[in-house]
Structure formats: C-alpha cells, structure tokens
Amino acid sequence: MRVGLFIPCYVDQFFPSAGMATVELLENHGCDVAFPEAQTCCGQPMANAGCSGDAAAAARHFVDTFSGYDYVVSPSGSCVAMVKHQYPKIVGNAASSVVSKTYEICEFLLDVVKVTQLQASCSKLVAIQMACHGTRELRLATGSERPALPTFSKPRQLLEMVDGMQLVELQRPDECCGFGGLFSIDEVDVSCAMGDDKLSDFQQARAELVVSTDMSCLMHLGGLSSRQDRGLKFAHIAEVLNGDWA
Amino acid sequence: MKHPEAAAGFVADSAKSSWHDQALWGVRTKRDAAVSAIPEWEELREQGARIKAWSLAHLDDLLVQFEAQCQQNGIVVHWAADGPEHNRIVHGILAKHRVKKLVKSKSMLTEECGLNEHLEAQGMEVIDTDLGERIVQLRHEPPSHIVLPAIHLQKEEIAETFHKTMGTPADMTDETELTRAARKDLRERFLQAEAGVTGVNFAVADKGIVVVCTNEGNADLGAGLPRLHIACMGIEKIIPKFDHLSVFTRLLARSATGQPITVYTSHFHKPKPGGEMHVVIVDNGRSALLGRKDFRRSLGCIRCGACMNTCPIYRRSGGHSYMATVPGPIGSTLAPSKDPKTHDSLPFASTLCGSCTDVCPVKIDLHQQLLAWRGELVKMGYGDRKKIRSMKLAGKVLSSPTLYKLAGIGARIALRGPRFVLPSEAKKWLTNRDLPPVPAESFRARYRRHQK
Amino acid sequence: MTEARTSILAALRENRPKGEADLVLEDIAIQYEDPFVSFSAMMKKNGGLVVAMDSADSAVADFANRCGPDGVLLEGELAVAENAAIWIPFRDEAERARPFLAETLAVIVRRADIVSNMAQAYARIGTGELPGYGVFMAGPSKTADIAQCLVIGAHGPIEFVTYLV
C-alpha cells in the first residue's frame, strides 16, 4: 500500500510534529509512506477567496504530484475536503485520479487500515475541537445538526483506543472555532469572539489539552489562548494517537 | 459600510453580543430536540428538497394552475414584475376600498418591496401586528431576523420603547405585562382596520389555497376581521399539491423554533362571505435567479430562519450587520443576486462551516452557494482587489515547487524578525492572537532526517 | 392578461431547470402506537389543556362552567398526535375571527379522530370538500418576541382547552 502523504503548507512550516506523528502512525500500521517533495498547497486559500482560477493551478499541481499513489493521506480534514469536494468543480475530470483515494488521517486509519488498537497513552483531560470540514463535509462524525441519525465520531473512536484517555464533554461540541482561513483576517472581530467562546467552552469542561483533525483551527485557538495566557495546550490528533502526549 | 465593520460594532458590546448568541443558540437547541423526536427527519428534508426542486422546474405551469384555481374560488389574482409594481397594485386595491387604516402580519416580501413606506407616503396607516415586527416598527428599525424580528433587543430596550410610545410604566419590564400591553393596544387597531395584509407561507397550486403560519393569531385576526384581505407572495411560494403541505408543515416550525407546528396554520381558500380576497404574485428578481444554476436552489427557502439561528457569525454579529432584507446565510446568497455591489461582503461573512446547509429543512446548499458567490463577485470585479492580487501571486507560488520552498523559507525568516516588516494581514492576525512559535526545522527537514 | 403576468411566465419558461425527475414521495411519517397519549402529551407541551370526557354533552356542560360568556367552543374535525394540531374547518362562514378574539377557546374532538401525523391528516382533509377557511390550531396563542421569553397569550386565545370525547 503506497501512501502519498500530503502535508499542508502551514503544517510544514509551523507544526512539523503533527506531520511527523502522521508519518509514524502510518508507518507503524504497515503503510509504505512517501512524501513527494514537489507538493505545495491544495489551493484552498485561493478558492475560498473566490479566485478559483488561481486555485486551479495549485489543484492541477496536486493532481500531478499525487495521482501515482494508491492513497493520498493528509492530517487536514479541510484540505481533504477541498480535494474531494472542490477539485471536481475547479479542474473537472482531471480530479478523478485523486478524489476517491484521498483521505483524512482518522478516516484512513479506521476505514482503510482498519486500526482496532493503538500503542499510545495520554494522561491529560482532552477536548476534541471538531473541525467543520471534517464534520460536515467529510462526515467524520454525526454533526449536532443531524440528531435523527445514528451517532458516531471517528476521531473519538480513535482517541478511545488511547490508554488512559479522558475526554471531556463540551456544551457546543461542533461549533465553528472562527478560523475560516481569510475570514480570520477579514472578519477579525467576529473570528476572535468565536474563538474566545470556544476557549471558554474547553475551560468550563476542565480540558487541559485540545486536539483536532486540523491544525488551522488550533493555530487560531492557540494564538488566542496564548495571548490571554489561558494555559490550554493544543495538539493535532495524530500526535495523541501516536503517543506523543503520554 | 460592509459586513466586517458593521459586525465589529455589534461584537464590541460583548455582553449584548454574547446574550444574542446564547438566545439564538437556545433556539437552535430547541430545534435539535424537536428534530430528534422525528426519526425520519433526514428523509423528510429530502422530500422537502425534492418538492421544491420539482416546483422550481415547473413554476410557470404551477402559477397558472394556482391562478385558475384561485379565480374559481373567487380570489382575485394580480401579478407584479417588481417591488414598485407590487406596491402600486396593493395601494390600488386599498384606494379603491377607501382604506385609511390597515393591519399587516409578517411578510418578508412586503419588507423587501418597502410596502409600508409606500403606503404611508400616500397617507395610509399601516400597523405591523406581529409583536416583534410591531416593536421594530415603533422603533423605526428594520427587523433583524425573519422569524424573531426584535431578537437584537433586550427587555429593557423594549420596555423603554413601549413606555415612550404606548405610555406603559417606565419600570415595566416583565415580558408578560409588556405582551399584554401590546395585545390591548393592537386589539383596538385590529377592530378599526379596514383591510388586512398578510404574507404567504405556501401557495397550493392544485387547490388555489394560501397557507399562512403564525403563533400569535395576528394573521387570522387581520384577515378575518376587515372585509378586505390581501395576501402578498413571491413566485417561489408555490407548491404543487395540497398533500405536500404535510411535508412543509412538519419541517417549518420544528426548524424555526423547535415547536412541532406553529400554533395556527391557516388555509385561505375562498374570500369570506361579503368580503374580498386578493393575491399579489411578485417576481422582483426571482425569475432571473431561477436561471442561475449555482444559486437557484435558494428559491426553495421556506423562511424558517434555522440558518440564522445556527450561524456562528449571525449569532455574534446580529441581523442588522447584514444590511439586507433577509440576513444570515440565506440572505447572504440572496442579496448579491439583486445588488452585488452593495452586498459584496456578505458571501465572505462566513467561515463556510456548513452548519447552515445541515439545518436547512429543504437542503439548500447554503455554504456552497456562499463559496460560489465569492467566485462570481471576483469575476464581476467586486471584492477586495488587493486580496485578489495577492491570491494571483499565491496561485503562482503554490503551483511551483521551487517558488513554494523559497516562500516557506521567507515566511519563517520574516516571522522571526521584527513585526513592522510583516504584511498587514499578519498584523491583523496579531492584534488579538499570537502566532505559533517558529520551530527550528520545517516538516520537510525533519522528514529528510527521518528517512536516513 | 397583464404585462407582468406575460413577462414573468416567459422568464420562468426560459430559465426553468430542465429534466427534473417525476415527483414520487414515499410514505415515511412517524406512526404512534397510541395517538391519544402522544396527542395529550404534545398538547400539554404546547401550553394547552386536555380534558377527557365521556360525551360531547358533558364537554358542553364543563365548558359552560369553566368559561364566562367570553369563551368560544368549537368542534374539531380531526387531531394530529405528532404535534397536537386540531383541524378546524370554518363551514359556517360568518365568523372567521370570533375564535381568535376569545380569551378562552375550547375545541371538542373525538378520540377516534386522532391520526398519527400530518401526512394522514392532509390525506383525510383532501378527500372531503375543502372549507373556505380552515385552521390547524395547536394550543393557545403565544409569542417569544420579547427577548425569547415565552408568553402564552399573544393576539389570540390565552387559554386553549381540548375536550377529547
């Protein structure tokens, strides 16, 4: 099983340990991981800014870089959603060679690798920051909007395999954190108000560590928390599943 | 003014913004509880979506059938191409009956057309009778929500308005006492009114029936007491069959407020004996919207307001920050189709979190439409030109591995240096947030070592 | 034929989406084992009162005791368990507004006329002759327009009594 690893641009620069945890998790579960050096960005920033023509160049480059692998896996639900839901609109049929085989790391571990146990432990009180595109586009979990459907959560299912895992319950388990890419700049006031409310929700639940399938949410939340000295810690879910928070 | 500035004003009063957020989140929570009592909810949404899609594909035939059925029932049908024509028609009917005072129940369409202002300019007295609409009318404000028009106001503010306009005691802030005061005041006005104007929730093509849903009973009093009833509807209110009402009455109130149905679901089939009933069918840009493939599904909206209640931006920025008749996610996709220049910031007033799409009872792909609008607006030449130029540059950089690597190194160096050299975007980020500490090595570097 | 009518219909014909599949809807609506129990629970939740009576006559007698001359008593044709809505057709056309002016509104419905859901309700109503005006009523009038605080009794009745006979 040859897995092409896609690491989002900001993870490459700012959160290398999230990327490394993803590599180790996949390798420890028998995947033949390759990181194609020619990769750049999925193109989401441009697409979300309304510049889909400019996103198309990045999208075509993504397709060229990854079409030769059996699977494409990424520690970012948002980028994966971009590939699966927007590429067909932006680059048409060219996208078909990557769309069906691109996975977010949690769904890949559960649905393809069929992981049932992990060699990891964690001693912290953990809150899950359910990233929006993971929840509502990739359907990694039943969104709170759809209570008539059977409840499941892939991130939670994996976290529960971690030894000693103590998950806390939030008042608004899948409310958006307010990042939203350029939204965090364009609508800075609303963005920060949303982020502050999330931080308060984590803290009323006594969480010590906030984990997410997307570092982008955590970059925003962590930035707010650090400015306010809230004392919360943040980590990509792969780091916890890899035992980095024992 | 654009949405970010208007939103900033509302967010600045953090106590009020937070109250507004909690109040609407409470409505969302009630909606969730009502939905979980209906195991077939997702299939029901699908049915709602399918009926609306079918209706939009057959609007012309359905409207003609509706008109014929109405006429057979003795209802007079009028057609208006736009807002001004709608206002002239309504005024014409009222003038013919020498109406000086009329009562009106909630109708977003008449709000869109500016009917009140038009009639008032011709010397008529228009009283909005939905309590929330009456409150904002007394304050000379537009509604801030389509179902909860005065949700931007707290009790004390409403008490002050009632004190000034109705002479209630200044310290009377109890919601029941305030509601009773309004009931008493409006009861008189109902009895004096010479005509009643209502909106339309659903217009049933095969029977010629107009359905109006309220909780207060104001539409029934307004339509039932005076001799003259005028119902105003957009062309998209049509549904094909009487039976289809079951799907929409099951969806509407649960989505809107978490009630299993509105208190009153009123079916107007014929004028009352000795009375007259008119229906005004209005286009005002809707037929053009029908021609836009990416956006036409927004015409299926049943105006439940669920997308507003769930929208984390709406809840914190308030309805007035949208500066459009219909605010929130649905308003942000409807408004640019009418006036892209004025409303070009609305599709960007979203994190594209997708919650609106998942609560929509007729499955309008709201967040996808907002994304599509961004592309349309950029193509039309609206939006922030500076941002678009930087996106062009980013597009070039991100499609070239060499430029990308250089940019990455550049960013890492810049973020270690003094802040004044950072671009304005980074400075905006840094007003309330720190940037993550720049690690010693990028992922790429670590991965290369890992491979060895 | 007005100009607007012609232009609107022409625009709709021009712009309408093509190839929409036929509309066939499955019967999916929830069924209750005991619609009476569900109806009663839902009506209480809606803020209405449910009174079980052995006959319509005793309901009329109870109503006379309960309400002053301001009350209005109506007959409901059917009731719906999923939401406690009662279908009230106005066949006697004279007084459409009268029940909405009352402080107390009472409705008599036969227990046998409680259906599970709105799909069944509309199917049944649709087979008969439709009234000039008909209303589903599901409790006393209400509003939460003042700061989301629920107040029973907006413009319509403040009290709503259902007699199930």
Question: Could you name the key traits of this structure?
Answer:
A: 246 residues; alpha/beta; Rossmann fold; 2 domains; four-stranded parallel sheet; 8 strands; 12% strand; globular; B: Fumarate Reductase Iron-sulfur Protein, Chain B, domain 2; six-stranded parallel sheet
What does this structure look like?
The complex is a heterotrimer of chains A (246), B (452) and C (165). With 246 residues, chain A is an alpha/beta fold. Chain A folds into two domains: 2-112; 125-241, Rossmann fold, CATH 3.40.50. Helices cover 48% and strands 12% of the residues of chain A. In chain A, strand 7, helix 12 and strand 8 form a beta-alpha-beta unit. In chain A, helix 4 (52-66) crosses helix 5 (77-91) and helix 11 (188-204) packs across helix 12. Chain B is an alpha/beta fold and 452 residues long. Chain B folds into three domains: 1-36 and 296-383, Fumarate Reductase Iron-sulfur Protein, Chain B, domain 2; 38-284, 3-Layer(aba) Sandwich (Rossmann fold), CATH 3.40.50.10420; 385-451, no CATH class. Helix content of chain B is 54%, strand content 10%. Chain B has helices at 3-12, 14-36, 41-57, 59-72, 83-96, 108-113, 115-121, 131-138, 155-166, 175-192, 218-224, 245-256, 286-290, 306-310, 312-317, 328-338, 355-359, 366-380, 385-398, 401-416, 424-432, 443-451; strands at residues 76-80, 101-104, 125-128, 195-198, 202-204, 209-214, 228-234, 238-239, 264-268, 276-282. The N and C termini of chain B lie far apart (57 Å). The model of chain B has no long low-confidence stretch (mean pLDDT 95). Helices cover 30% and strands 24% of the residues of chain C. Chain C contains five helices and ten strands. Chain C has helices spanning 3-15, 35-45, 56-66, 98-101, 118-127, and strands spanning 49-52, 72-75, 78-80, 86-90, 104-109, 114-115, 133-137, 142-143, 151-152, 159-164. In chain C, a hairpin with a 7-residue loop joins strand 8 and strand 9. The longest helix of chain C has 13 residues, at 3-15. The chains are: A alpha/beta (246), B alpha/beta (452), C alpha/beta (165). At the B-C interface, helix 2, helix 3, helix 4, strand 1 and helix 8 of B face helix 1, helix 5, strand 7 and strand 8 of C.
